[in-house]
Amino acid sequence: MSASSLRMLSKTKQTARIVIVGAGSAGIAAATRLLEQGFRNVLLLEAEDRIGGRVHTIPFADNVVDLGAQWCHGEQGNVVYQKVMDQKLLEVTEPHYENFKCVRSNGEVLPETIADQLKKIAFDSIPERQTDLGAYEGSLGDYLNMKYWQEVAKLPPIDRNIAEEFLEVFHKFEASVEAADHLYEVSGRGHLEYWLCDGELLLNWRDKGYKQFLRVLMKVKDDQPEDLGILKGHVLLNKRIAEINWQGVDELTIRCWNGEIITADHIICTVSLGVLKEQHKQLFVPALPAPKVRAIDGLKLGTVDKFFLEFAAPPLPEDWPGFNCLWLQEDLEELRDSELFWLESVFGFYPVSHQPRILQGWIIGAHARHMETLTEEKVLKGLLWLFHKFLPFNVPQPKRFLRTQWHANPNFRGSYTFRSTYTEELRTGAWDLESPLLDVGGRPRLQFAGEATHKHYYSTVHGAVETGWREAERLNFYYRQRMSQL
Ligand SMILES: Cc1cc2nc3c(=O)[nH]c(=O)nc-3n(C[C@H](O)[C@H](O)[C@H](O)COP(=O)(O)OP(=O)(O)OC[C@H]3O[C@@H](n4cnc5c(N)ncnc54)[C@H](O)[C@@H]3O)c2cc1C
Fold it and tell me: Which molecular function terms from Gene Ontology are attached (predicted)?
């Protein structure tokens, strides 16, 4: 046996060097679990100047806003919920995303009775665990259209234009849930791979934001909220990784963008699918095996961005729990010919819990990516034009404005993942992305975690956390088994 093989085999939980690339939810979950299991030499390398990744809570207006993950989705089987359920950190969000007004581009507000009927039909048409979708060949968009029009036909006659306008905006809303550019690229059958956790689906973190959950994971003390808790001394920020060399039996090497070399016995890579798509060919030496590359190609992620507008006082009348934008065909055609064309994919604005002076808006897809390239000033000007066009009252100039740029940031390159019809075509899935690269002795060398690697809870924080724990346990199992063989 070579000296390097012997050196590797002599490693224990105390001496094995584990590098985790990315300090988002998955990376933090992996690191905290490894430390809890007795590993000592755990290092998180993070490209940004902060931890959290797509959990990004920042001070804004009366307390904080979440630029990324905002809600804990569900209770049963949700590890985020289970971790904090005794601490009263979460509360049920007001039903703004159900009660919103539907406003047409001519300023007309749909009567509640019509809006409620169309909402019910549309929401009921989205299959969660509908078995008939299991055999459906087409896209989620086609399936939704089929169900929607079947049910609309059963109602007393409704203006067809209004029903179409509503369906259009509902498509955008649902595409934001999927993070797809549009629902025609989401696989109908693949949609069933996603498991909803039973219970309340929109639990918010009161005035603390989603970062509060990461503090719980890291065991941060209440009086030192910006501390790293048990991760103190284990995180290096501003450490963007340029290359991961995983060949050979000896130590693995990681090259940072500043040229620094870091060595490790195991690497857990948690970068987003967007980063993998753009960079995997340069990032990994040797190149990743074909099934892994197929998964990186075949799984998809899109862009969902948020707008936050802070006003001096609550901007909407009290009986307005938010609104969706329904475009009349002639107005849409005019818009498409103008430089404000990107506004077509801004689908609605809603209040934010514990933030009465804020309005939060959403934009999806290619138009979101275009919006990210515009100046903040231009984006705000566009949104104020939209308010003026749609709303039957004046919205004042906001005091402060911000928008997210999840795609433009090279450390994310998108928002979250979904299963597309192309994923099915390539017959790939999270299982291929998840599978670790082992050496000939079965030792995990390069492991993969992150929301995209979860078979059922992809696109969520609870999914990302489970994948971090999964990879920590993989190493724990390997070392426990080795010890028992000695
Ligand atoms: C707008 C938006 C809204 C969302 N809303 C919700 C929600 O309400 N509820 C919910 O459950 N989920 C939501 N999500 C999804 C959720 O945020 C993600 O699923 C989860 O945070 C992903 O965690 P992760 O650890 O897999 O990846 P990330 O958080 O992306 O972590 C990966 C880390 O790797 C770092 N990195 C990238 N490249 C490199 C490199 N070369 N070198 C070193 N470090 C690198 C990144 O900076 C990042 O910190 C939302 C996401 C977005 C964008």
Answer: polyamine oxidase activity
Residues 289 and 226 occupy one common structural domain: yes
Same domain, 287 and 429: yes
Ligand 1 centroid from CA 326, angstroms? 31
What's 329's domain CATH number? 3.90.660.10
Please identify, among 403, 434, 464, the residue that sits at the C-terminal boundary of a domain.
403
CA-proximal residue: ligand 1, atom 34 (nearest): 22
Residue-wise pLDDT for 397-407, tens only, equals 999 999 999 99
Specify whether 26 is located in the same domain as 82.
no
Predicted confidence band at 372 (pLDDT cuts at 50, 70, 90)? very high
Look up the domain containing 177 and give its range: 113-191
Angle at 11 between CA 17 and CA 29, to 5 degrees: 40
Query: Is 100 within the bounds of a domain?
Result: no
Task: Give me the number of domains the chain comprises.
Answer: 3
* Alpha helices, H only, 315-419: 329-336, 365-373, 376-390
User: What is the CA(357)–ligand 1 centre distance, in A?
Assistant: 27
**How do residues 171-214 score in pLDDT, each as one tens digit?**
999 999 999 999 999 998 888 889 999 999 999 999 999 999 99
Q: Is 27 in the pocket of ligand 1 (CB under 6 A)?
A: yes
Same domain, yes or no, for 119 and 180?
A: yes
- Kindly report, residue by residue over 211-244, the tens digit of the pLDDT: 999 999 999 998 898 899 999 999 999 999 999 9
Distance CA 315, CA 307 (A): 15
Ligand 1 center to residue 10 CA distance, Å? 35
Cα–Cα distance, 292 to 290 (Å, whole number) = 5
Residues 381 and 310 in one domain: yes
Return mean pLDDT, the chain: 95
Which atom number of ligand 1 is nearest to the Cα of residue 22?
34
Q: Alpha-carbon distance 360 to 350, whole Å?
A: 5
* 3-class secondary-structure state, position 278: helix
Q: What is the token pair recorded at 136?
A: 């459906």
Average the pLDDT over each of 50-59, 221-230, 458-467 and give the range with the smallest value.
221-230
